[in-house]
User: What shape does this take?
Amino acid sequence: MTRTLIIYGLALAVLVFLLKYLEYRFVVRDLSIEFYVGIVAVFFTAFGVWAGLKLTRKQVVKVGPEFIVDEAALNRLGISKREHEVLLLISQGLSNQEIADKLFVSLNTIKTHSSNLFLKMQVSRRTQAVQKGKELRLIP
Amino acid sequence: MTRTLIIYGLALAVLVFLLKYLEYRFVVRDLSIEFYVGIVAVFFTAFGVWAGLKLTRKQVVKVGPEFIVDEAALNRLGISKREHEVLLLISQGLSNQEIADKLFVSLNTIKTHSSNLFLKMQVSRRTQAVQKGKELRLIP
DNA sequence: AAATCCTTCACCCGAAAGGGTGATTTTATA
DNA sequence: TATAAAATCACCCTTTCGGGTGAAGGATTT
Assistant: This one.
């Protein structure tokens, strides 16, 4: 996370230099302030959207309060949190594309997660994963 | 069923005439008996296999004794017995091909059943059908 | 700091699933 | 027995899944 902030800081610095260079290169001194502010606004808007998604993407999926997940089984099978999350959404009848949209990641990522999940659960289809997941008390 | 028997009888008659014709057409009188018996054996073997599958295909799928199906919901949604059977097998994680093999029908038939099932249940994927089927107490 | 695991994403390919239409046969029922 | 409902199968097409591989960056642990 710290490295990400550093990278963004550097990108911002580069942007500032670029703007300064443009100021010298062309004669746009009269509207440079609005332009400057606009660019910065766009930049921080993008950053805000990204950060918002990044920070709120955790715990998007929750299980019911009365259901207790068999953590031991999860560890035994080597299923990660993200994979468990995907399994839960699969059990709710969502397609991979819908899961990707819900978790703000790409379709390919969900396909990787589900593939690894099926390997670890020793199943070959999502319906089997749901069935086995319920048996093992991984999902309600 | 009666028509099927009639058709098979006619086919058998045609087969007899065909064999008689061959006897006159070619000089195969010496091995005609073995040939005759062989053809009839193959024919009745095929018929036996077909009849056996046809008669034993009923009640292949059963639900557990402690689970009671909500028949009212089935009628309300207009779901037939066969469709309910398919839904049960879908919920057990079977693929359409596996269901077809289990019920001794073709893959296309299962696809038709599942399509109609999804229409009646107002879902678009089998995982959703399983989820909704459990909610409606159609399947355990 | 290095090793390791997790997460993310991409590409390719074949298999499975789903949607639509049309047709025939079987079964149930009015 | 006529009619309707259910079951069967085929063909088309598109979308979704699943398997395999590779890679890059972040997080954790040692």
Observations:
- DSSP finds seven helices and no strands in chain A.
- Residues 71-135 of chain A form a domain with the Arc Repressor Mutant, subunit A fold (CATH 1.10.10.10).
- The two ends of chain A are 34 Å apart (CA to CA).
